[in-house]
Amino acid sequence: MSELTRRELLQLLGSGLAALQAGCLEPAGEQRIVPYDVDPPEQRPGVPVRYTGLLARDGFAAGVLVDTRDGRPTKIDGNPLHPATRGGSLPWMQASILDVYDPQRLQQARLGGDTVTWSRLLASLRALPRGPVWLVMPPQTSPTVAALLARIATRHDLHVVYDAPLDHRPAYHGAMIAYGRPLELQVEPERADVIAAFDADMLAGMPMSAAWARAFASRRAPDRRMSRLWVCEPMPTPTGSVADERLALPARAVAAAVTCVIERLGELGLHAPTLDLDTIEAAHAQLDPVQLTWTRSLAENFAERRGAGAVVVGDRQPPVVHALARWIDAACGNVGGGPVALTEPATIDPLGGDALDSLVAAVEDGRARAVIVLDANPVATSLHGHVLADALAHVPLSLHVTRYFDETSAACRATAPLAHELETWTDARAWTGAHAIGQPAIRPRFDVVSAIDALAALAGESRGARELLRAAFPDDTSWRAALRTGVVADSDAPRVAAAPVWPDSARDELVRTLARPRADGIELVLTPSLVYDGRHAANAWLQELPHPITKQTWGNAALLGPATAAHLGVSTEDVLHVASELGAIELPALIVPGMADETIAIELGYGRVTPAVPIANGVGVDAYPLRTDDRLYFPGSATPTGERASIVRTQLETAQHGRELAPTTTLAAYLRDSRFTAHLRGDQPSLLPTFAETSRGTQWGMSIDTALCTGCSACMVACQAENNIPTVGPADVARGRHMSWIRIDRWLADDGTVVNEPMLCQHCEHAPCEYVCPVNATVHGADGLNEQVYNRCVGTRFCSNNCPYKVRRFNWFAYEHHDARALQYNPDVTVRSRGVMEKCTYCVQRIRRAEHRALVEDRPIAAGEIVTACQQACPTTAIVFGELHEQGTRFAAMRRDARRFDALFELGTRPRTQYLAKVKNPRSAR
Amino acid sequence: MPALFPPAANAVYRAALIAAFVVVNAAIWLPMIWIRSPYASGESDAIQQPIAFDHRHHARDDGIDCLYCHDGAETEAYAGVPSTERCMGCHAQIWIDSPELAPLHASWVTHAPIRWKRVNALPGYVYFHHGVHVHDGIACARCHGEVQDMASVSRAHDLSMKFCLDCHRSENGGRSITRLTSCSTCHR
Q1: Tens-place pLDDT, residues A300-332
Q2: With an 8 Å Cβ cutoff, are A29 and B45 in contact?
Q3: pLDDT for A478-517, tens place per residue?
Q4: Distance between terminal CA atoms of chain B?
Q5: In A, which residues are within 8 Å of B136 by CB distance?
Q6: Fewer CB in 10 Å around end: N or C, chain A?
């Protein structure tokens, strides 16, 4: 470092003094106030305005509410009126707001090497000569898109490839077997006494998960009405973590388990397909006696609860398993009047469309003159991506309409930026068929168009997306109502009455499925991740979100059970060479209790090659090359390479070591004696004032029901969006510097029961952090909040050292954004910078907003009026915020619940956040 | 041996000691006094706005209520500054030829908003809500001064934390002082 001259020293001192002044007082006349020239309706400075909106993944809509501040969308939450969210949300929905402002997004259309405008591209699409046109896009549900496709087909020889790496079509094929036509399964978990999920992450990983989780939670109070969830899966999932009866089974053996359920139902005299002896023997051969007993017990439970059961099968399973599941529901009378119903699918042409292979063949024959890839990335995700990439390079017009310049963009001649759902008019149907219109919440920051605009140009349609959507409504009233509520009234698909059949072809297919040789070695299972199939890989919030099960961030690993690991002789972080018939990859092993034996699960969507998208580029390992066909499980092998690679995790220990961090019991035991947590709550001897002395006036608190928490982590992303929480990157996460104010601890009981325990600032009445702060930067507020005062904090980190819950986060660097992402910041929350401690505030900005509103309106704050961001996001309503004196509310009931306990009660911190212990309802514990 | 120092040396030495004491103390205290002075806070500095808007004329002579233009003050966090449209409500009819109003009419025609200079500003970590204060009967003038007597508006108070706490600790309208002085009342 060069010597400091006297002049420079004085300059620094002077600017330091100026900075000191600027920090405490804002000088007059330096900032500008810029009012509107004409006041827009609805908008007032600083007042949030909420609009309905629409997100969609593989066609299926998720209705959301979008909070906007002065014209900027800042937060996304589930729309309580939309059947696919019912007010809850999932991490990808919450994180979608970051994509709106993502500086990595494709911002300029390119044709060849030149930048062009979208209007020129649209003109060239309109003028496209008649001929074969290939469209590659995800499955669609939009009626507008359906109409446009029909019109394009009249102008061009149209071929559509519905490209979805995580394909929902096995379920439709299953319905084809059972009913002769594709039908969608509708489930009402709130009406189900028993639910069985076969390889289905129905509470966190499916299009209806947010809504199903909320409905499921309504039947989980530990009383006689408590439902029972049976889960049979190859790897632990959030759904499996709340299962009452869980069976870890290789994906290939799930068919055998379902077959055994059918067999037992037949024995019990229910009308189920008769299976021949060979089939039954083949099924029995795949299960050990414990597993067989489990399936028989499941069948008996369903037979006991006739008309009140539901079976859900995951998309990974082959069609015949779906067909058998429909038979279980039919045999038990669950369909029609029960919790299960069938409707026509919302998806357009559910089993139609061309295959990508035929596109490649058409290119080779010169029959494909124009290929338009719309919002899909088949080069990265399809089975023969490199072949497709070569083919695309030989098409006269290959256009990739995309949000990010990715692997497919690199293979196409032209790329064009696609609008975010919050920037454009869209529509889509939910899983239930409910139609919804998505309206823009912000004017796009650069030249983008929506999928509808692009298709309209191909169809020669001159109207814009809004006019096309509006045209489907008879009058302004219904249009406005659809926009205001976020869902078109009475648009759920009508229920279809259908009786299942069991054709010989189905019997043969079942025999083939069961007879698939039981591989001696390892079964590889590919599974969606927090970045789904890779489409959310550019989102730093989702990359840094700890995986609900493994708590891994920024990447994937080979997940395997302790027994398999012992068999292979590997431990966590040993690199494995994982190979299938067609491909091989190397990635670190991660031992996860609850995995099926001889199974290695690998998450999809990582290992992307996207130099233009740095967040996604090269994070984790790409598992797509392992695939041998469309299936997501197949035989393979795994051998340790002898090398080690680090896995970035936020929780390393899941054992409780007898400390009762997360007590559990069974329903039967709970109904006999409900006082199993009585020793974990109440007052410890203390010299400090008691609650009665400190509880005058409004006092805030929170209750969290660990029986409901699936660990889906929507709350974590919601908190990040609401409270301007930064991401820090894998290197800093590895050093324990992740910034989430709320995390979800995963604890295992001795019997394998999983407890997901959301851990956030407990707002202790006797807070250990407060005693040790030398500058009074963390103090207690009059309403019971443990307050963190950023502008007082000098960063000693004593508070974090003394916090027994380890929920305080320190800004080691200046993590805040100064680019477009800063537009997402919640203006009601301070953006912290380097050297400052921060932590959960119970969303104090929402508390103050409600208090101000109530004061201005001369009324008390209504019970339940204040909803924290985590509570609002939670699909299962596990988190409830409230006032300690309120009466007659759910929060008041939770504060008196027999299951309540204080985390780390023995420390006497008197936390304001209280937990309800988990009660399971296994059939075996009668 | 002659005296090493002349007789005046004692006086010089004492003077130097006193000067050193004064300088050191001044270096400590003067910035602290200065930062609390109107010079630092810009109190009473008349701010020249893009339009020579005269509150005396509007608020005193014409008796227009503060809330007519700053309509958020009664219910919202931000009082707000009127849009061009609001000004044009009157000035499309009166004073249409005034050269003083040329920037206003230019804004109306070109849709370019008027960029007023902010007079009263708080640091980013302070969250002030106009509505609750006005609702509790705190007069606008309590913080903003007698704006109706200002030719060009200047800051009437330094708006420091002390200025806020002076009220929050005393004139609290029957509200709990501990609540009004909790950190998270204003900082989040």
Answers
A1: 999 999 999 999 999 999 999 999 999 999 999
A2: yes
A3: 999 999 999 999 999 999 998 999 999 999 999 999 886 6
A4: 74
A5: 855
A6: N
